[in-house]
Amino acid sequence: MVGLESLPATFTTRVARGMEVHPRDLYRWRDNGEVVELSRGVFRRADAPEPTYPDLLAVAMRAPRAIVCCVSAAVVHGLSDEMEPTVQIAVSLARNAPRIAYPPTTVFRFDAETFEIGLSRVEVAPGEYVRIYDPARTVVDLMRLRHRLGEPLAHTVLNRYLASPGAKPGRVLEYASVLGAVGPVRLALDIAGAR
Prior knowledge:
Layout: E1 10-12, H1 13-18, H2 23-31, E2 35-39, E3 42-45, H3 54-62, E4 67-68, H4 70-76, E5 87-92, E6 105-110, E7 119-125, E8 128-133, H5 135-144, H6 146-149, H7 151-163, H8 169-178, H9 182-194
Parallel strand pairs: 5-6
Antiparallel strand pairs: 1-3, 2-3, 4-5, 7-8
Helix pairs in contact: 4-5, 5-7, 5-8, 8-9
């Protein structure tokens, strides 16, 4: 029998089964508090360091091709203090949308051709990373979705981005051009610059 110490800090039922862990042992570990179930079929060893973003980690394990986006990405990048009640992820239109009940998740469908523009990653637990849009792409996505997620939020995130040390307004315009949002983004940049 494979011991718990042989498994990674965060793992799925599929990984455990691949290492020949019997489901009975997996659920015994859970019931004994040796592992914590982060989401259906996603477990974290209790002796592993506390994750910084456990919900993002759980969702990424369930949907590894998804990318953290919108308000969730803005919070990670320090561009917003507004915590959404759901983890927001993007998936390509070419893929099926995952259905994740816990942690609550909102799925956005983005064009396959532009899906990975602005892709970066963030460490959500020691040595564990998830895919996330970079700050400039996050600004553009919130401007593109401002009617759904709120215009004040989009402008707040843009202003915080512009005030940040690594701000690159040119990159924001570049992404906006490719993503079909150059008009509202240029106007918002002009208004922000006039203040």
